[in-house]
Amino acid sequence: MGQEQQPGRRLVLGAAVLGAAGAATMGTGAAASAEERAGGHGDGGRPGGRLPVPAIVAHRGTSGYRPEHTLGSYQLALDMGADVIEQDVVPTKDGHLVCRHENDITATTDVGDHPEFAGRKTTKTVDGVSLTGWFTEDFTLAELRTLRAKERIPETRQHNTLYDGRWEVPVFEDVLKWAEKEGKRRGRPVWLHIETKHPTYFRKLGLELEPRLAKLLRKYGRDRADSPNFVQSFEPSSIRQLSKLVGCPGVCLLDAPDTQPWDFVEAGDPRTVADLIKPEGLKWMARFAKGIGPVLDLVIPRKEDGSLDEPSTLVRDAHAQGLILHPYTMRNENTFLPLEFRRGSDPNAYGDAFGAFHAYLATGIDGLFSDNADTALLAAAEFRKG
After folding, report:
1. How big is the chain by its Cα radius of gyration, in Å?
2. CA dihedral 298, 302, 304, 306 (to 10 degrees)
3. CA 306 – CA 324 distance, rounded (Å)
4. Is 171 helix (H, G, I), strand (E, B) or coil?
5. In this structure, which topology does domain 10-385 adopt according to CATH?
6. Per the omega criterion (within 30 degrees of 0), is the bond before 54 cis?
7. What is the rounded CA–CA span in Å between residue 193 and residue 166?
8. Low-confidence ranges of the chain (pLDDT < 70)
9. CA–CA separation, 114 vs 144, rounded Å?
10. Vertex 112, ends 109 and 116: CA angle to 5°?
């Protein structure tokens, strides 16, 4: 199952392409080409906003080389040629959006070295998980600006610690300004992939993410269907709400099959991710989303020993509903790779990342998140050549 896709030359990721009306009927066991999913038009009727297929999304910037979610990480990703650069947004106490993978900033900043904030350390339950540390919602923007970012997993990425303390926690509006400046300098738009983190949790605190994000996207002209960015979330209700506020394409992120989106838990919705990846679940998401971002194991499950099994039907089934797929996350280190692509005994050494990239790209996915944009871009270019 899962015949290898012959990749289309280009795919436009705008409303003209992503809508269900543009989806082609899928052949048994085969993925439609990019141009077929675009309704037969290579530019989808919208010039200037095209992305290659497969597109490479720089996961939190170049987090394989620089501390994640820093302007240094974003800039290096752009300089490497990443097609899209990801941001995760969380709010401050005074309602500003900043870029952190989590609101818990214990591991990604030097907050523990600031005696003036020692009393802010606390224990909270976020999406059902008890966490002890420091949280963005307990700091004003001015206070957060006194902190410096650092490497989240220093044991695995020891070389990244060289850059600890070099950058602040980015304010999302500053990232938009940076993207606008870089876009003008390069003569082409800088694509962004923007995730709302823990939206139900923050809604309960009166720090709603969606209207704040939509306001900023409108301010910088990134709210339209042809704008060079995606909005994404692990909570479908956040994407549904954003679809009413902005026109840019929304992507529903999907974790392991037995997990539930937290908004489902709060609402008493019994569906799991396993339900959402069935044809009826995909059809439901296609009502308000233009794509899905599944964990890679949903595209190709792993066997008990950690090696790859046969590809699932998710790519075919999602394309049948007009949904694009941007799975996450490819990393070069052995510890993250499927068993057959690991090399040597050092879990932190690089394995056969190119072999793993080819296995995933051959399923017909439209893009892929990677911590190592340079490796991913080379793998994608080689894949397009056949």
Report:
1. 20
2. -130
3. 27
4. strand
5. TIM Barrel (3.20.20)
6. yes
7. 24
8. 1-49
9. 11
10. 115
Distance CA 313, CA 325 (A): 12
Which among 145, 172, 150 is positioned nearest to 160, based on CA atoms? 150
Structure tokens belonging to residue 350: 């690089």
**For 126-160, how does the pLDDT look when each residue is reduced to its tens digit (9 = 90+)?**
999 999 999 999 999 999 999 999 999 999 999 99
Reduced to 3 states (helix: H, G, I; strand: E, B; else coil), residue 269 is coil
β-strand partners of 349: none
Which pTM does this prediction carry? 0.89
Choosing from 59, 193, 319, 326, which is the catalytic residue? 59
Round to the nearest angstrom and report the end-to-end CA distance of the chain: 19
Q: CA–CA separation, 139 vs 120, rounded Å?
A: 9
Q: Where are the alpha helices (DSSP H) in the chain?
A: 15-18, 34-37, 71-80, 141-144, 172-186, 199-204, 209-219, 236-245, 262-267, 273-276, 279-285, 296-299, 314-320, 353-361, 373-385
Is cis: bond before 329, omega within 30 of 0? yes
> Residue 106 is encoded by which pair of tokens?
């214990």
Backbone angles phi, psi at 50, to 5 degrees: -95, 150
Task: Say how many C-beta atoms besides its own lie within 10 A of residue 274's C-beta.
Answer: 15
Whether 358 is catalytic: no
Q: What is the DSSP string of 277-319?
A: TSHHHHHHHTTT-SEEEEBHHHHS-B-TTS-B----SHHHHHH
- Relative to beta strand 84-91, strand 97-99 is antiparallel
Give me the amino acid identity at 32.
Answer: A
Question: Is 101 assigned a catalytic role?
Answer: yes
How do residues 280-339 score in pLDDT, each as one tens digit? Answer: 999 999 999 999 999 999 999 999 999 999 999 999 999 999 999 999 999 999 999 999
48-80: b or e for each residue (b if 16 or more CB lie within 10 Å)? ebbbbbbbbbbbbbbbbbbbbbbbbbbbbbbeb
Helix (H) or strand (E) holding 259: none
Catalytic one of 101, 193, 198, 319: 101
> Maximum CA pair distance of the chain?
62
The residue extents of the domains of the chain are 10-385
